[in-house]
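Appendix C reproduces, verbatim, an entry submitted by the partner laboratory led by Prof. M.T., so that reviewers can inspect both the input and the predicted structure.
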Amino acid sequence: MEALKFPENVEVDQEMATGLLGVLNDQNLPPAERAQALVDLHLKAVDAASEKASQFYRELQDEWVGQAVKEFGGEEKLKPILGDVAKLIDEFGGTPEQRTELRDLFSLTGAGNSPRMVGFLYNIAQKLAVEGKPATGGSPANAGRSAAEILYPNMARG
């Protein structure tokens, strides 16, 4: 066995491929040593894949945090927005245990760093804050009118 063929869309680590070919082509290795060499190579590949995924996650989180800071006008402007999101979770996140789980979910998945998620939750918090307040303005439209005048506005007085 001289070489291995991989599908075109598969990215091959050349060091790993060379190591695998070395183990497979070494006719002098006893079966137990060959098996151990394959296990060691597999564990090395798993570690490399795990590190690559972890690195991608860290870079994505850093990118999201940077985007959120930029989109919301800087760290100082982002702090009260995150405070409003925290209040939203406090009010609508369920029991204390459920709120803790929700916060852990945002932290563990990194979704809480996404500028789309922050914006989405902030928009909800803002909408609920406005809807929960009484309307302000001038005097009511029906002030000074009797019930009959309100119910029958076209009826002649008197």
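The chain has a mean pLDDT of 86. Additional entries are available on request from the coordinating office.
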